[in-house]
Specification:
The complex is a heterotrimer.
Chain A lengths: L8 E2 L4 E6 L2 E6 L1 H7 L2 E5 L5 E2 L4 E7 L3 E5 L4 E6 L2 H4 L3 H4 L7 E5 L11 H9 L1
Antiparallel strand pairs in A: 1-2, 2-3, 3-9, 4-6, 5-8, 6-7, 8-9
Chain B lengths: L10 H11 L29 H12 L6 E3 L12 H6 L2 H4 L11 H18 L3 E2 L6 H15 L5 E5 L4 H13 L3 E5 L1 E2 L2 E2 L1 H8 L4 E7 L13 H7 L3 E6 L10 H4 L3 E5 L15 E5 L12 E5 L5 E5 L6 H4 L12 H39 L3 E3 L8 E6 L3 H10 L2 E3 L1 E4 L2 E5 L6 H15 L2
Parallel strand pairs in B: 1-15, 3-4, 3-7, 7-8, 8-9
Antiparallel strand pairs in B: 2-10, 5-6, 9-10, 11-12, 13-14, 14-17, 16-17
Helix pairs in contact in B: 5-12, 6-7, 12-14
Chain C lengths: L48 H12 L22 H7 L2 H4 L11 H18 L3 E3 L5 H18 L7 E5 L5 H8 L3 E5 L9 H4 L7 E6 L12 H10 L3 E6 L18 E4 L19 E3 L18 H37 L15 E4 L15 H10 L6 E2 L8 E4 L7 H20 L1 H5 L12 H6 L5 H5 L1
Parallel strand pairs in C: 2-3, 2-4, 4-5, 5-6
Antiparallel strand pairs in C: 1-7, 6-7, 8-10, 9-10
Helix pairs in contact in C: 2-9, 4-9, 5-6, 9-11
The chains are: A alpha+beta, B alpha/beta, C alpha/beta.
Chain lengths: 125, 444, 468
């Protein structure tokens, strides 16, 4: 049974968002890391901006690859480059390891995301 | 039913199997095929031949191609193949194996590919090599795709005019369908012009330039300043190499290249009328994930033994489908073995000697041709085994003259230039005979 | 098979040599300026001839090939590779031919291309072939380039969509993407065939064509092919035939007759040329008459993989028309026989007569229970290695979770199939009893299951990395 952390917002493509003021920290859910298996590489291109619903990177495991989609629009203010050398962190604790930090240009986009309860129901389907 | 050596079924086998399958006749297994599409009559082809007939047929047919000593290069070089190479490569454990997806019973294939990758890295000086691609020209086309993927938003590439014609044709074909633009860098004195490169790069629109380390005129190019100019403009340097010459000439890494590609044919693979050859691709570490095709890596098994596996497969078409780095789903594995065995025999010293001896032969050929007075030097630049000369002779007549004397060479390079090549396999006697034939035909 | 651990570089000793070059020329390189020369020699191994021969012979003994044993590998057509083909293709009369030689100096080489072209035309119902493509995926790409060229020649630039069934080989969408085209997936129905009703709404003036494998990757003949081809043609699109599964149709059904306009063949599957551990293959592309002017696409350097083409022609001549027709039918018989024998142990998702291959969806009884993981398709595949067989194709097609795809080819005897069937039944029984034993398989191979995660996380891709 995958863990769903309270207090985060979730997208249908299994990214989570932690909101701190105008900043959104974005990572992947426990469900996503379980589906991927052992993650072998996290690709976080050096982007200036991201658009809601557009790719901001990709994950690879031995037998799968998955693109990462940004749940919000904004400026990329930081990338978690630790993951480039230690992709296993996403398997070990997906909620403690964010992938990018975005300075949101339209926080109202958060309204389209699911809360923990809604996401739990979503992945149970 | 007539029996045939590749079909082990007896009459009894077939009837027993049909019965188990619940049908009466072989054609009943095609009941799902609309009857209008099912061929009941044999095709309009010859009847089966015995093995002896097939052998005789090809022997007679191939006798029509008179043996010619090759004095042509242009991307296909007649170097000597040691007897060990075809002997090892025809071992059926290598020859009849599939792609090494089941690593537990494919360590032989995986290990020689790892050796191939290592030797390509040794020759090019770069960090990462793949398991090979189809040929040199397609390797160059794949390098363009890598460069485009690594320089987001750029849709233009530069090709040196001094690249071999078939490389330019194939790269242009791939680029056209991928909606990429190509601009050509002109030559100056038979070499890719740095000034032209710098001028082009001012636009900031190019993803890469592909330049030949030894070019279509046989000239060893000087690429001082190329990497700096390209990197300064945010573009990649792709070196197209004849890998045999890398034993002596500056390596792609020494020129500052990001990607090196070329054809492994010159590493002991026979001319074979153009194939199979083997394209190689190597790149710097930051480009590793953009490299197309198979890659073999080292790891351990459950018992801690060193084993080799296909790795980084998430780049590939069977996982990424339309988002893959390339559509390639094979390599030229057996030809990579060919190269590995050849390089293991030659070593650094042998490969150097191949170049030195070829160079000596080419120098002799060039001086003998010049001595006829029918040719003039075209460029004053260093070459190894291939060179061009200027001539007023009709190149068709020249080729015909060579053919009559038992030689193939004098490739028309346009604008009154002809290309010759000599490898370590050629002899003084052959060169003397070739020159004598030219003198006899054309010297009035 | 025995484990052998050396790499050639580890056997290297300075001063050893494995070559003998002609003494005709002195070693001479004085006139290349030092500024153009490499600083140090490449670190290649230095070995004697004996070292090299022993090393590679030892490597070969860790390999499985068609000559070693049975390869039930779906979609790969691992048939026997006749030796006469090898003998002819390795003739010195071919080895010495330079690719720029024309018909004046190499008439036989051009005649071989021409004879193969004509034979393939008759076998497929196409009007002409190009031999440039060096593999199946390369054939797809070349074929799509031809498709695009045809539309462009008619001013139909907007045709950029390629329809591909969800059961297609992964190369289909990848080839379309490399050709600058957009992929649209059409669903398969319950019967495993392309769903015609799902196809209709995808058709329109933006469609370049549709790629199909027939029989498809489930080994099922797409019986609605006539209707599908008509619909695609009606909207102005072209039909592309992926020849990966041509084997059962040899001498039985011709793609040209079914309405296909462009196709590729895999000479290394259908026409018996060896796979060589992953190449060289050959993927000639054929087209219908209206597309002949578009056939000249420069997708590789010279004439394609010529010696592979020679092998295919030799095969066609050996078989002749009567045995070509028999090859397709016997491959179909072999597949159906295995399917019927094993369907009690392995789940058969679609119960229908198959062509040259079929797909199981895992074990019926995988031995799993509360707290015990059942044996998967991967475990069955790995256990087969212990019994001296190559594994089937696994986890493809993507339509099922536990796909296990079996293709026996016509060159396997009933005895070989019976022995394989017995082992597959034995493995099913082992799974039911002790799935953990299967999960640890293989147990009898030179090496056991590799740590693929470590390989991908910390790539060691050359011996220079391993030393560090």
């Amino acid at each position: 049974m995958s863990k769903v952390q309270e207090g985060l917002l979730y997208s249908e493509s299994h990214e989570w968002v932690r909101v701190e003021g105008p900043n959104a920290f974005i990572g992947i859910s426990d469900f996503a890391q379980e589906e991927m298996g052992d993650i072998t590489w996290v690709d976080i291109p050096d982007l200036d901006n991201v658009m809601k619903g557009e790719e901001f990177g990709a994950l690879e495991s031995v037998k799968a690859s998955s693109d990462l989609y940004s749940p919000v629009t904004g400026t990329v203010s930081e990338r978690n480059t630790d993951l480039e050398d230690a992709p296993e962190l996403l398997n070990e604790d997906p909620y403690a390891n964010w992938i990018i930090r975005v300075h949101m240009s339209d926080p109202s986009e958060l309204e389209d995301l699911m809360d923990a309860a809604a996401y739990e129901a979503f992945i149970a389907k | 039913m007539a029996s045939f050596p590749y079909f082990p079924h007896t009459e009894g086998d077939i009837s027993a199997m049909l019965e188990r399958t619940g049908v009466k006749a072989l054609d009943d297994l095609y009941s799902d095929v609309p009857s209008k599409f099912l061929h009941k009559e044999p095709l309009n082809l010859p009847e089966a031949m015995s093995e002896q007939q097939v052998r005789d047929f090809f022997e007679k047919l191939l006798a029509k191609d008179a043996p010619l000593a090759v004095f042509a290069g242009q991307g296909a070089y007649d170097h000597y193949t040691p007897a060990v190479v075809p002997y090892i490569c025809s071992r059926s454990e290598f020859l009849t194996a599939y792609t090494p997806y089941q690593c537990e019973i494919s360590q032989g294939t995986l290990r020689y590919i790892f050796e191939f990758q290592s030797m390509i890295c040794a020759l090019t000086g770069l960090d990462v090599s793949n398991a090979s691609v189809y040929d040199g020209p397609t390797a160059a086309a794949e390098a363009v795709r890598m460069a485009i993927a690594s320089t987001k938003g750029r849709q233009l590439v530069l090709l040196s005019d001094a690249l071999l014609p078939h490389v330019k044709r194939v790269v242009a074909t791939y680029a056209k369908f991928a909606h990429l633009g190509i601009d050509f860098l002109p030559c100056e004195g038979g070499q890719t012009s740095l000034e032209a490169l710098k001028a082009k790069l001012e636009s900031g629109l190019y993803a890469c330039a592909i330049v030949p380390s030894v070019n279509r005129f046989g000239i060893v190019e000087d690429h001082s300043g190329f990497a700096e100019a390209l990197h300064g403009a945010g573009a990649l340097l792709v070196e197209y190499c004849d890998p045999s010459t890398l034993a002596v000439v500056k390596s792609p890494a020494e020129w500052g290249a990001d990607i090196a590609v070329g054809d492994g044919q010159s590493l002991g693979i026979p001319l074979n009328f153009g194939g199979p050859y083997v394209g190689f691709m190597a790149c710097t570490k930051p480009l590793m994930r953009k490299l197309p095709g198979r890659i073999v890596g080292q790891t351990t098994d459950d018992s801690g033994r060193r084993v080799f596996v296909l790795t980084l497969q998430a780049r590939e078409q069977h996982i990424r489908r339309e988002k893959a780095t390339s559509n390639i789903c094979s390599n030229e594995s057996l030809m990579a073995l060919w190269v590995s065995v050849y390089l293991s025999l030659m070593g650094p010293e042998g490969l150097k000697e191949v170049n030195e001896k070829s160079h000596a032969a080419a120098l002799y050929l060039r001086s003998r041709l010049l001595s006829t007075g029918l040719f003039e030097p075209a460029f004053d630049a260093p070459f190894i085994k291939e060179f061009v000369l200027r001539t007023g002779l009709d190149t068709k007549a020249l080729r015909a003259c060579l053919q009559d004397a038992g030689f193939f060479g004098a490739i028309d390079e346009g604008e009154g230039l002809v290309s010759f090549c000599a490898t370590e396999k050629r002899t003084h006697a052959e060169i003397d005979a070739l020159v004598a034939a030219i003198e006899k035909t054309f010297k009035v | 098979m025995k484990f052998y651990d050396s790499l050639s570089i580890e056997l290297s000793r300075p001063g050893r040599k494995g070559y003998s070059l002609s003494g005709e020329w002195s070693s001479h390189m004085a006139d290349i300026p030092a500024s153009l020369c490499r600083e140090s020699a490449p670190a290649l191994p230095e070995l004697s001839e004996v070292d090299v021969v022993r090393h590679y012979t030892n490597l070969s003994q860790m390999n499985f090939g068609v000559d070693t044993g049975f390869y039930p590998l779906g979609s790969c057509t691992m048939k026997y590779n006749p030796k006469i083909n090898e003998e002819i293709a390795s003739s010195s009369a071919i080895a010495r031919l330079h690719p720029l030689q024309g018909p004046d100096t190499a008439p036989a080489a051009y005649e071989i291309l021409d004879l193969t072209d004509k034979a393939l035309q008759e076998i497929t119902g196409m009007a002409g072939f190009t031999f440039k493509p060096c593999a199946g995926a390369h054939g797809e790409l070349t074929g799509l380039m031809i498709m695009r060229t045809y539309h462009l020649s008619r001013g139909e630039e907007a045709r950029t969509k390629v329809i591909v069934p969800d059961s297609a080989h992964g190369t289909n969408p990848a080839s379309a993407a490399v050709c600058g085209l957009e992929v649209v997936v059409v669903k398969s129905g319950e019967d495993g065939l392309v769903d015609v009703e799902s196809l209709r709404p995808l058709l329109g003036p933006d469609v370049a064509g549709m790629m199909m494998t027939n029989p498809n990757t489930l080994g099922l003949f797409e019986k609605n092919i006539e209707q599908i081809a008509a619909l695609v043609h009606e909207c102005g699109g072209l039909m592309y035939y992926d020849g990966a599964n041509m084997n059962p149709l040899l001498g039985a059904v011709r793609p040209g007759d079914m309405g296909f306009d462009i196709m590729h063949l895999n000479l290394h599957k259908t026409f018996s040329t060896p796979h060589g551990g992953g190449g060289p293959g050959s993927g000639p592309v054929g087209v219908a008459a209206p597309l002949l002017p578009c056939l000249g696409v420069d997708s590789s350097g010279f004439h394609g993989n010529f010696t592979v083409i020679v092998k295919a022609l030799s095969y066609i001549m050996m078989l002749g028309k009567e045995n070509l027709a028999l090859a397709g039918r016997l491959s179909t018989l072999n597949a159906n026989y295995i399917k019927e024998e094993l369907r009690d142990c392995y789940r058969l998702p679609i119960d229908s007569v198959c062509k040259h291959e079929f797909v199981f969806d895992g074990l019926i009884n995988d031995g799993g229970s509360e707290g015990v993981h059942g044996a998967t398709t991967l475990d069955v595949a790995k256990r087969l290695l212990d019994y001296g067989y190559h594994a089937p194709t696994i986890y493809f097609p993507l339509l099922f979770h536990q796909s296990l795809m079996i293709e026996p080819t016509e060159t396997e005897s009933k005895d070989t199939l019976d022995a394989f069937i017995a082992v597959m039944k034995k493995i099913a029984a082992e799974a039911a009893e002790d799935p953990a034993m299967l999960q640890g398989a293989p147990h009898n191979t030179p090496v056991s299951r590799p740590d693929e995660t470590a390989a991908a996380r910390n790539p060691i891709l050359k011996w220079q990395d391993a030393v560090q």
